Amino acid sequence: MSRSDVLSLYRRVLRIARSWTAQSALPHDTDTERKYIAQEARTLFRQNQQITDPESIKRCTEECEARIEIGLHYRNPYPRPTYLPPMGLATQKGRKLRAQQRLRKQAKPVYLHSHDET
């Protein structure tokens, strides 16, 4: 992806934020969700501003596009949670713990890669 493609994606997110209407249609909720969308876009795009690896750029743009589509489809700008409890299937030490951590990392949806583990 070129710089202009990334910038057009950023502009698309900001346009969505400007025209966003909350599902509840309450002005306060709409304003809160608009601010969240714009702040989240600013934070993540600035956080990833220094990335130069084409594969990493592609992964970040795919995450952004996935979050846009999910947000528009469900009319909810917040990332969807994952319901696998932390370390729910592994003991606290040893090989099973490392395998569980690896599986959790692999199972993380594309639209949540920019969020820290909870």
UniProtKB/TrEMBL annotation:
List the GO cellular component terms: mitochondrion
Region annotated Disordered, chain positions: 98-118
**The organism sits in which domain of life?**
Eukaryota
Alphabetical list of CDD domains matching this protein: Complex1_LYR_LYRM1
Q: Which residue windows does the record flag with biased composition (Basic residues)?
A: 98-107
Complex 1 LYR protein domain segment(s): 5-68
- Pfam families associated with the record: Complex1_LYR (PF05347)
* Sequence similarity: Belongs to the complex I LYR family.
Q: Which PANTHER family match?
A: LYR MOTIF-CONTAINING PROTEIN 1
Which protein, by its recorded name, is this?
A: LYR motif containing protein 1
**Native species:** Cyprinus carpio (Common carp)
